[in-house]
Amino acid sequence: GPVLYLGFQALEKFAAARDGALPVPGDAGDAAALVALAREINDAAPASSKLEDVDPGGVLTTLAKTARGYVSPMCAMFGGVIGQEVVKACTGKFHPLHQWFYFDSVESLPKAEKLTVDELAPEGSRYDAQIACFGKTLQREMETRKVFLVGAGALGCEFLKNFALMGLACSSDGSVTVTDDDVIEKSNLSRQFLFRDWNIGHAKSTCATAAAKAINSNLNALPLQNRVSPDTEDVFDDGFWQGLDVVVNALDNVNARLYVDSRCVYFGKPLLESGTLGTKCNTQMVIPHVTENYGASRDPPEKSAPMCTLHSFPHNIDHCLTWARSEFEGLFEKSPGEANAYLAKPAEYAEAARRAGDASARENLEKVAECLLKERCATYEECVAWARVRFQEAFHDKIAQLTFTFPEDAVTSTGSPFWSAPKRFPKVVDFSSSDGAHLALTRALANLKAEVHGVERPEWAADDAKLAAAVDAVEVPVFEPKAGVKIETDPKATEAASSAGGMDDEAVIEDLLLKLEAVRGGFSAEYRLGAVTFEKDDDSNFHMDAIAGLSNMRARNYAIPEVDKLKAKFIAGRIIPAIATTTAMATGLVCLELYKVFNGAPIEAYRNTFANLALPLFAMAEPIAPKKFEFKDMSWTLWDRWVLKGDFTVKELLDWFEAKGLAAYSVSCGQSLIYNTIFPKHKERMDKKVSELVQTVAKLEIPEAKKHFDIVVACEDDEGEDVDVPLVSIEFR
Questions:
Q1: Are residues 348 and 495 in contact, defined by beta-carbon separation less than 8 angstroms?
Q2: What values do phi and psi take at 150, rounded to 5?
Q3: pTM for this one?
């Protein structure tokens, strides 16, 4: 801080004396002059603020030599910070900066001796400002790099923009493979700036790469729409991973991050990881043989509300919305989807249900019966009647049963009040067609039910008065609470446990299958239900109307403050708050680390960052080195793999380990045991090829193009102590 503060004062003084000209890139004379000015300013400063060394580690010399340069990652990083400060000034939200803010990434630069006049001299290209910092050599290297960008959403767009401006993979020898299986939604436009209105509904990766190429036509980008997962290893095969120089994650979920991390560890590729949440962001550098991997540390799992809280004892709007989203998916997506599975292959479905004969099979069959037997609608009036009865059941009958089973004065087995905080004692909601919220929810449910069953929606469905008349004409069964009804109160109970009662599953399955078979003859062979997949951004599809309505009626039951449709969309849509300022800062920080990867920097040069623009807080630390294992004169980390070349037999494999002083007692492939000393029969496998056993015993399919397979070998030393050895790859072809 103090050194850079002094350096920028000296830089201003230098420019003022030279008609605004900054030091010539790489010029040692200009650098010395700037350091001399810094000394003058320091000498004139009060004793309390004097520095002992004005150029520690040559920081001001480097500042002078690179002062004319500017790089897009640094602009992105500061742009994010400054943009958030502007928002703070306009809104009064969050704490503003009340001090000078200096940030440097000197570690990103090449070694000092490479910062020469010739190396940093402009060449008349669009990259001159970057060359003034990093030189021509690194610029040429960056242009030929092969990069894999996983994700083309908020982070992905910013990364692609930076890559285009940096010149990364901007030659025929370089490439950026961008993959994202998502399409652009309206809500993306607020923070994913490579997209426009006319891109809505199109693939993110295709639109993002097209926009990035508009920034730099030399960007050699290949867009794909494949999810990176075990299912796409035929697309992202060994050859693909081996050909990469660096992988950049722009993902929004932990499972995908862990999978990409495992691939990078396996193939020894650098992984640059980042994530945002509102004004918070973090970055993590995963460098082969230098740092630990992403999966080495985990955040604690997010807490979810107990099942009994969601079903019977909600005490905040999040619980109501989670319940509403679950109801929506169950009624309009999962149940019709299960019915379609039955309709597609009825004989196979019936056979599988009979063979399973358990509660899970019964529950799935009940969903089918619900759609095709009990609640099948042929007219819109029937859809309205279904919606009215569903309202009655959810917000009147179930609440009446709950308060009958647990009256307001009920006590627990210990004598304390049952309805004590955070539990709220509920009250039934009596339907009224004159209540706009009641009518709106009924309309939304009826319209969605009509969509499921392919029922045409009449014009009068949009008329409140006509809809109210149709709803009032529905005969609603009178409900009488019953004694002995079990309501789950155990917070640790699961859905499966609570639904498993004393029921003869096989008998119920058989009965339902007979009833379904009887009605199936009335359907055509092509008949299917229209399963509805939740889409939060289409205001005309009634999805959010249904979820917000269901949630608010439940909130009324429990005297919980209701929310508007926008707030409901935010929570029920499980939207991760993403704002452009944080995204810009995160990607800027990661791209500054990219330079270090290309420079082959040591671990002490890298930085993992946690920042919160709201506070504001910036915490940076060196990555952690990988855990090191040692045995005799050998050492290894999780980055290492022992590669054995040749088509080994089990005996040859054991001998190979024995030569290293290790006794291999177990060999496995996937979930299958290939060899273990405790099984006498396994001795018969000693002379068999391991490649044969992994295919016959482990049922591993090895494509013709693949030259190796992986096995896990468990070993112990001379004293019988287990030794964790690396993954073993056998190149048998």
A1: no
A2: -100, 100
A3: 0.75
